[in-house]
């Protein structure tokens, strides 16, 4: 194995040192370096140094230095989608990590119903800042996820059928490209970058701020209702009923179903811990009476272990999926489905239902369609609008199941292949091989993204992690 390059970072450290002597560059052992530890603890993130960027200029200086010295630059906010740094990555070139956590301003403009977010902002902060005006950002299942990381992958959330892809609401990005230039990116300024940033993840540079449209939405009717999975017959009855019901829903109503095996932890409701359960999630923007009425067939399926569906303020949107907030060593495998016929539900039950031997924490199917299926006003690099459902298996990498958890999830994905579109959502592709990464895009989109990367990052500074390159 070749010796890794070791670049002298003294000049960069000087450039990133403030007049009071404090520096925002941290090498291993320095105070501040530990922010590299991602939310997903199964990923090893070991850059040569981390830059705790406070301004777009900090990012520009870092990228410019890296490009001049042939280093690579990765970006991280929360680490929910961390890709990790392999031995190979670190051998090829020194890697600097730009951590965006300090660029955390949230500005709400109630008059235009827009928000400007620094790249370090997480969704919960936007929800809380917008709520006093009755406004809401269209977010994903977990409010702890970073807004920019989510939006650069498109963003499919619990209200996706009603409001469409979250990145359809982006008005502008501020971006640092491979030569260290800061650019404003809108449908009319750098339109090729505006196309590629909505779906292309970190391929085209480091986003330092984003401007988005908010929607007028103070609350919704929804949450989750949990049944004991019982035996295969009971689980089948519930899942088949959910499938048929999910097909009947109008665009205002959104749903997903999840087979859970939750551990007995303080954050897990005791009714759900230590057993297999089926959670039916629901989120509707109709009136509470109409939305409750539409949910009646699910409530009629039996006595739930827990019924947490009702009228909620938008600040509680995270309750629909109730994803774990704290860092954990997570595994994830996902695929897009064109349709979900009854045979697919039977296959899912065999592999993930009672008696299957599944060790996954959750195996989830989301109903898509609705507003997601319509072309955006300005074309983008998200290639999965035609999918009817998404399928996703996630687990916790515990020593006793470490060997089987990923192959088992992959077997589930393979079993769903007959009904899949062949696509993988970019936001659920932090753990895929380069070949699988191609499945995040159609051929034309992949090529255009890779061409743009060649044009805006000819030195390959961003050639690490979740990026598209020839
Ligand atoms: C519990 C959980 C729930 C989730 N729910 C959903 C969901 O409902 N819908 C959905 O669509 N996704 C969902 N995701 C996936 C999530 O959107 C992605 O993992 C996203 O990349 C996380 O962004 P982050 O900034 O928090 O993570 P990070 O790990 O910090 O960043 C991940 C990647 O995002 C890109 N990125 C981050 N910041 C920047 C930047 N400033 N400039 C350019 N690129 C950047 C880079 O490619 C980076 O490698 C979920 C993930 C988890 C763990």
Explain what you see:
With 470 residues, the protein is an alpha+beta fold. It has three domains: 10-99, Uridine Diphospho-n-acetylenolpyruvylglucosamine Reductase, domain 3, CATH 3.30.465; 106-216, 2-Layer Sandwich (Uridine Diphospho-n-acetylenolpyruvylglucosamine Reductase, domain 3); 219-434, Vanillyl-alcohol Oxidase, Chain A, domain 3. The chain has 13 helices and 18 strands. It has helices spanning 10-15, 56-68, 87-92, 123-130, 147-151, 160-163, 191-197, 232-247, 288-299, 342-352, 405-416, 434-437, 443-456; strands spanning 25-26, 49-52, 72-76, 95-99, 106-109, 114-118, 135-136, 170-176, 182-185, 206-213, 215-216, 219-228, 253-261, 276-284, 306-313, 330-337, 362-367, 389-396. A seven-stranded antiparallel β-sheet has the order 15-12-14-13-17-18-16. A five-stranded antiparallel β-sheet has the order 5-6-10-8-9. A four-stranded mixed β-sheet has the order 1-2-4-3, covered by helices on one side. The two termini are 24 Å apart. The mean pLDDT is 96.
